[in-house]
Amino acid sequence: MADLQDDLRPTAAAAGEFDELAEPYPDEGIVTAEPYEPVSDPDDAPMTRARAILAAHPVADGYNGLPWALKRLSWYDLEDGESTVDTDVPRLRSGHVGALFWSLHLPEGLDGDRAVGATLEQLDLAKTVVRTCAEGLRPACTAGQVADVRNCGRVAVLLGPAGAPALGDSLGILRQLHLLGLRVLTLTGVSWASEAGLTRFGEEVVREMNRLGVIADLSGASAQTLRRVLSLSRAPVLCSRSAARTLRPHPANLPDDLLAELGAAKGLCLVPLTAEQAGPTVRDVADHLDHIRTVAGAQCVGLSGTYDSGAAHPQELGDISCYPRLIAELLRRGWEEADVALLTWGNVQRVLRGADFTARAAQQRREPSTATISELDA
């Protein structure tokens, strides 16, 4: 299957700014990264090595809250630099970030029509920001499009995760959000994905997500929901903000048994760079990455900056430009460069390719679902 996935080209995306992405970007201005040659000099500084590796394998950041943070600003300039937020184009370049997922999560308490409307507003804002930062940012929906954007010397922006309340219990709304560019959905905060697990309607939501190519985010989901999604989903899943509960007992962090199950299912655990979940120092974050790699495997661990989400960040990781400091710490601990490349870039690309592959196959055998929550969960 991996070979088939690698052969896939990007599918035609959806309407609006995130639509016209089926063809690669034009050759003009393409900047192709030079192949990275491993550094063998034992006297070479880890920071220098970190920057060299990141030049070839940039960070795919799994969670960034910039759209919501910009709502409070009357004016901003992300191209030249914006000190009032943690993320702007100069710092994305300094941090060697090649792609990032923009969170569309909402404040607690919004549900029903209000949640749907607020999510649509965030989608609109995100597209506007990308359009006005065309020199630094480009929209993307698939692994192929992400690679195209990187080759143009820009940062790829993917939309999601959004919260499940944004669906309003309607598979039709899920399809429309996908058409508008949504690529990740968090399965919490709704009756059909609760502490008891997935209901029949919840299972149908997962099947429809697989058919569309929307990735399931299980951070904060119950153990029952996580296990049921792992057994049901034909596409890889991810946890957008989960560290190791063994090291820090935060409710969104995962215990070792679930980490092992996630790794066995070829899922992805994106470790958040927040003091609350990972700890107060860069070394604490590295401890979580070490632990998850040991328990779940190198192909199961990734990075989630969680910048501009209102969270406090560990020392030396105060904004999105600080990723080289974290990679340097991992190199000091003996991480192989191949594992660093998976951590920063490869694992996210694999999950995106898996979602694409599953959607293509599912669309050949399954029509859009017309199921409703009233008929399945009555």
TrEMBL record:
<feature type="region of interest" description="Disordered">
    <location>
        <begin position="1"/>
        <end position="26"/>
    </location>
</feature>
<dbReference type="InterPro" id="IPR008257">
    <property type="entry name" value="Pept_M19"/>
</dbReference>
<feature type="compositionally biased region" description="Acidic residues">
    <location>
        <begin position="17"/>
        <end position="26"/>
    </location>
</feature>
<keyword id="KW-0645">Protease</keyword>
<keyword id="KW-0378">Hydrolase</keyword>
<dbReference type="InterPro" id="IPR032466">
    <property type="entry name" value="Metal_Hydrolase"/>
</dbReference>
<protein>
    <submittedName>
        <fullName>Dipeptidase</fullName>
        <ecNumber>3.4.13.19</ecNumber>
    </submittedName>
</protein>
<keyword id="KW-0224">Dipeptidase</keyword>
<dbReference type="Pfam" id="PF01244">
    <property type="entry name" value="Peptidase_M19"/>
</dbReference>
<dbReference type="GO" id="GO:0016805">
    <property type="term" value="F:dipeptidase activity"/>
</dbReference>
